[in-house]
Amino acid sequence: MKTHYKTLVVSLLSGCLSFQALASDIDEAIESATKHYKAGELSQAIAQLDYASTLIRQEKGEQVKNAFPPAPSGWQAEDASSEVAGAAMFGGGITASRNYYNDDHRIEIQLMMDSPMLQAFSMMLSNPSMIAMSGGKLIKIQGIQAVQKVDGDNLEIQLLSPTGAMITLRGDNAAQSTILKLANAIDLKKL
C-alpha cells in the first residue's frame, strides 16, 4: 500500500512539474513573440506565437483525454491518445481517440476540436434534409442533436458538443446499445 501511495505521489508531482515546465515554455514563447513584434521582426513573432499555441493545444489535448468514459461492464478500453496539428496543417486543431473492445465487438470514439474544418459539419448537422439525403437519421445524445448512420453491419454516430467539438463513435451495429451508452457517458464539460 505504501509503495502504491508513493508511486501516486511521485506521478502527481511529476505531472505538476511537467505542467509548470510547459507553462514556463508558453510564457517564454509569448514574451519572445512580444519582443520580436516590438522590434518589427514579424516573422519571428509569428513563429513564437505559433509555437505557444501548439504548446497550449498539446496541453488541451492531454486534458481532453479525460472526457472519454471508462469501459462499460464486460468491455476493456485502450489508453486514450491525442494529436495536435498546428495552424499550418488544415488550420490547426486537436484530435483524440479511444478504442473499446470485448471478445465480439470494437468501438472507437474520436474527438476533433479547434479546427476550422468543423464549420462544414456544423452546417450539415443543422440541415435535416442533408442528413436524410446522406442516409442518416436524427437522434438525441445528452440532449444534443446527433446523426446516426447504419452502413451494413457498421454504425456511426456524430454530434457537436456545446463547445464545438465533433464527436464520432463507430462500431458494430450489433453493439448499438453500448455505443449509445458510451455516447451518453462522454464528459462534455471537459471538451
UniProtKB/TrEMBL annotation:
Originating organism: Rheinheimera baltica
Keyword Signal set for record: yes
Name listed for the protein in its UniProt record: Uncharacterized protein
Signal peptide start-end: 1-23
Keyword terms, alphabetized: Signal
